[in-house]
């Protein structure tokens, strides 16, 4: 990639703009689907454990394909990769929009995922190569503004489209935009790539696919099937063993598919761990809040989307501000402040009740997003800043892969924690209720009591999961005290570093 786009006084803003629009569409499509899942279940007559594969399948394809992007970025031009990625995404969107059975819809989603898996690491790599270290925070902040715009409008737009039309309109709405973006790339992207003599190691691809895919599938299935299911622990064992073999193989290869030597750079290693922990914590609100507001409180999909809107907008607006602050003061202070806010607001989320007001939820969620906006981009950018330029494709691919894995792990753990707590609380409440029963209650009274117990138990399960998330985020806070402003390390093959940052914090 360094031969294709060099760091100059004037970055290639045209290329970056086209890539950002493509990535925005991919992000928007993801956030659109969440609120539509109940409608899809009803229309296609599938249950929750089946419909969740629209998310799980997407993560699986990303987990399998993203590790190969480091090779693809080094081998092919930005133009070629973008057109392939956007082409796959467009075909998948059209297919999903006309799906009349669940299998066809899932196939469309997985084709979409194969395109978006290439898009994000490609864009991140172009950004890293195009801007010097001292200006990278502001550039990444603007990138964050664009990327956070999708989660800002996605849930609200989805709620409105589903209520006014049909869930298929979510895909029909995206299709013409995706076609226009593909044509923009076809006519505006002109970069060429010198021929690079590297080959894709197919055994590494197989080991990576089985490794990351097995771990993602195992954790994603644990919530519905239980940890004692052979399907869950079997795929986890196979995934871990394959991943270990994959890592060992990469360490002994001269030109590895995914270079794990990037973990010898301490700030990158630290940022990687913090980002994984934060992603796990972030998924708590993304998953638990919709269950609380729609299942327990009966709030409509549109109102549920509107509830998340102010927080998402705030996070988007904060992104460029955080980027500029990062360039001036580094990532440590931002991470400490942001994580402290995240921990405090998450703790208050563990105190939800049936009387918690809609306004209270909006304010609490907005403050939580404000805290997270100060953590995600500065921490990951600081880590990538320490890598020599030739490791950028590997760093961005690794970050994207681990985000998928940690998201799946976080979701599975929180679903399991919520389910177990709900089950144990329901038993306790039922036992207590039976002790206080007088006379022979009617069938209607028993049904009402059962429903009340189930709702109280689920609320306790949700609150307990948020409480566990407080401790997960606290781990990231402790680690953030060790962050130092990264300077680009010397490349052992070149012998020099470049663009050294100012003093360490």
TrEMBL record:
PROSITE patterns: MFS (PS50850). Keywords: Cell membrane, Membrane, Transmembrane, Transmembrane helix, Transport. This is Major facilitator superfamily (MFS) profile domain-containing protein. Belongs to the major facilitator superfamily. EmrB family. The keyword Transmembrane applies. One of its GO terms (cellular component) is plasma membrane. InterPro entries: EmrB-like, MFS, MFS_dom, MFS_trans_sf. It is found in: Cell membrane. The keyword Secreted does not apply. Residues 15-488 form the Major facilitator superfamily (MFS) profile domain. It comes from Heyndrickxia sporothermodurans. One of its GO terms (molecular function) is transmembrane transporter activity.
